[in-house]
Write a structure and sequence with these properties.
Layout (H helix, E strand, L loop, with lengths): L1 H13 L3 H26 L11 E4 L6 H10 L5 E5 L17 E5 L6 H15 L3 E7 H14 L3 E7 L6 H18 L4
Parallel strand pairs: 1-2, 1-4, 2-3, 4-5
């Protein structure tokens, strides 16, 4: 019997306790939920645009945004191309104009998505735009849409530019922090 008792005690030590299984299950559920929300908001956000909008607005930041914005302009998807140069030209130099498309380059103040959205709102009122397409990256898509819709009453669409694979981890982490700030901290235009 002693032999059986020791064997039974050993089985109990090997089997995870009910509490450990529940904790592990809860952690696994949280990790899966965070991954799913990250995928939906920062990796594969909803995108698209109608055939024509009032303006194409390229936000400054990482990724190959300018070729996407210029391609939309060359397709005459809008009569105006707006290029944010970001912080001291971080968005790049003002490109050569596309024939038949008005080009506006600006440096937002502050040099943030918030500053870009506020400038976009002012331009939209001045030029009477009723729809815009934002050119950004997937990790900025949801946040840019939320902030822009606070400053601009028209329809906002998003088309994303490619982001180098090596930048994804940083951009996802940054995107979560910036999205939290946009949703919970800075809630005005």
């Amino acid at each position: 019997m002693k032999f059986g008792t020791r064997h039974g005690a050993s089985d109990e030590r090997r089997r995870p306790s009910r509490l450990r299984r529940r904790v592990f299950g809860a952690i696994a559920a949280i990790v899966i939920a965070v991954c799913a929300v990250t995928a939906r908001l920062l990796v594969w956000p909803a995108q698209g645009m109608p055939t024509r909008v009032s303006a194409i607005v390229m936000l400054a930041g990482p990724g190959d945004r300018l070729p996407v914005a210029l391609d939309l302009a060359r397709q005459h998807r809008a009569p105006v191309l707006v290029v944010s140069r970001g912080n001291q030209g971080y968005g790049g130099p003002c490109p050569s104009p596309v024939p038949g498309v008005k080009l506006i380059c600006f440096e937002p103040s502050p040099a943030t998505t918030q500053g870009e959205a506020a400038a976009l709102g002012r331009m939209a009122r001045q030029f009477r735009w009723n729809s815009v397409v934002l050119v950004t990256t997937r990790t900025q898509d949801t946040r840019a849409r939320i902030i822009t819709e606070r400053c601009f009453g028209g329809s906002t669409y998003v088309v994303t530019a490619p982001l180098p694979l090596g930048q994804w981890p940083y951009e996802i982490a940054y995107g979560w922090g910036a999205l939290f700030k946009a949703v919970f901290v800075v809630r005005s235009c």
